[in-house]
Design a protein that fits this description.
257 residues; alpha+beta; Alpha-Beta Plaits; 2 domains; 10-stranded mixed sheet; 22% helix
Length: 257
């Protein structure tokens, strides 16, 4: 069966997450329903990451095995036709080798978190960013983020229901930039690692927001990390604003597109 990699963009607002669920809408369910309109009885698809309810994606990657050897451009177009009106789009499609696996072949995952500091409620970006009504200071958040880089026991920043075998992970990057936003400021958190614990990025951002607001010091983040205790974590921010931005592979399956 020919195998195809799909790069998928979606608004996670109406979904219970990526993973298929019997009683709730999911992104996986929407994509598999579209595939079933093309070829019935296909195997289930696999994705690079199981995003939670309300989390978005700019570059989720999934693979599927088809019976017919589709032209990738036509396969993407057909899927997008059948995905309507769901806020899901296949932005790229490529034929890949049989040993390519969207999850297990991935070498890194990059997340983006958008945080807006503005007193007025949001209209156009509602559900796409996390808004806080108070000002934030960039430099202390950047200083605090440096304490999190490298290989650590991230128990403090791990959800209680996390099923990962170990809390030890290596954080390759956590960069924060500030940019203008209408009547406020936007802070973008760019986070990269091979893999993440459940709620790890949202725990990072919620904690760093406390630093930017002046409620925590950068040193408090170091102390929280070393505590290796969930109770030492700052608030976990909401899923709005979190995007699976990119998945890296030894060879980019979409490089030639």
């Amino acid at each position: 069966m020919p195998r195809f990699a799909l790069k998928i963009e979606y608004d996670g607002t109406p979904f219970s997450g990526w993973q298929r669920q019997a009683a709730h809408p999911s992104v996986q369910g929407a994509v598999e329903a579209a595939l079933a309109r093309l070829e019935p009885d296909l195997p289930s698809i696999a994705a690079a990451g199981r995003t939670d309810a309300g989390v978005h994606a700019l570059g989720q990657v999934a693979h599927c095995d088809m019976t017919r050897d589709w032209d990738p451009f036509r396969l993407a177009a057909a899927l997008n036709h059948h995905l309507k009106p769901a806020p899901v789009a296949v932005v790229a499609c490529a034929r890949v080798s049989d040993d390519f696996h969207a999850r297990f072949s991935a070498m890194e995952r990059r997340y983006l978190f958008r945080l807006v500091s503005r007193r007025a409620p949001l209209t156009h970006d509602r559900g796409q960013v996390w808004r806080v009504p108070h000002p934030l200071t960039l430099a202390p958040m950047q200083e605090a983020a440096r304490h999190l880089l490298g290989r650590h026991d991230f128990t403090t920043f791990r959800a209680a229901m996390c099923q990962a075998a170990s809390p030890v992970k290596t954080l390759d990057a956590l960069e924060i930039e500030e940019r203008p936003f209408p009547h406020g400021r936007e802070f973008r958190f760019h986070v990269c690692a091979r893999s993440f614990l459940h709620n790890q990025v949202r725990s990072f951002v919620g904690t760093l927001e406390r630093v930017g607001a002046g409620a925590w010091t950068p040193e408090d983040v170091k102390t929280a990390l070393e505590a290796r205790a969930r109770a030492a974590c700052g608030p976990v921010c909401p899923p709005q604003g979190l995007y699976l931005a990119e998945v890296g592979y030894p060879e980019d399956p979409f490089a030639a597109l």
